[in-house]
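Late entry, written up from scratch paper. The run itself happened at the end of the previous shift, but nothing got recorded in the book at the time, so transcribing now.
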Amino acid sequence: MYERQKKLIVEFGLKMLRSNHVSGSSGNISVKIDENLLAITPSGIAYDKLNFDQVPVIDLNGKIIEGNLKPSIEYQLHTQIYRNFSDVNAVIHTHSIYATVLSVLRIPLPAITETVLMFSKQIPVSEYANAGTNELARNVVHCMKDSRAVLIANHGLVCAAKSLDEAFNMCEAVERSAQVYVSAMSTNMPIYVIDEKCAEEAMTFLKKNYGQATDFISF
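Output as recorded:
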C-alpha cells in the first residue's frame, strides 16, 4: 500500500543526495498520506540504495503501520510538525553545508535578499537539543511558528511545506542564500540587510504575486 508516497520518498531522497544537501543516509524526508499517517525515510539506509518497499509508514505517534524497517531517528521532528501545522504535508531535513555553518554559529539567516523573504523575515535557529529527541522537535516547532524553514542548532536545516516539491525548493533557496551570507561575512565588509519596512512590503508582494495559482494541494 501507499506506493505513490513511498516512491516520492525515494525520488526526493535521490534529489537531496545529488544536490549535495546530504551524504550517505543523513537527513530525512516525510510526506503525509492522510491526517494520521506519513511515509518517512528509514533509519540508516543510503538514498542511492533505498527501494520504495523499504520505506516505513508510521502514524503521528510514531507507531509503525507498514514496513519492516524502523523509521528515521528524527521521526518525532516530523510527527510534531504535522501535529502542529495543518497546512504542512511534507518535511525535508538536510545537512546542507552553508545552512549548517550558520546553525553551528547559531546565526539566523537575515533578509539579505528577497529570496529569504519568500519564507520569512529571517530564517531562525532553534535552541540546541540532541538528535532524535522530543526536545529537538519541540524547539523546531517553536521556531516554525514564524518560519516554515528553520536552522537546527549544530545540525542542519528543516523545511516544511504543502508538497515535497515546495519543501525541496525551500531547501535549495535557503542553502543558496546561506552561501551568499557566509561568503559575504568572510569579506569582513559591512553587510546590508533589507530594512523592516521594505521587507514587509516585499513579503506581502511575493506572497500575493509569486508563482502560479493552484486550487489543489500537491502531495
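Confidence is low (pLDDT under 50) at residues 215-219.
(Scratch paper discarded after transcription.)
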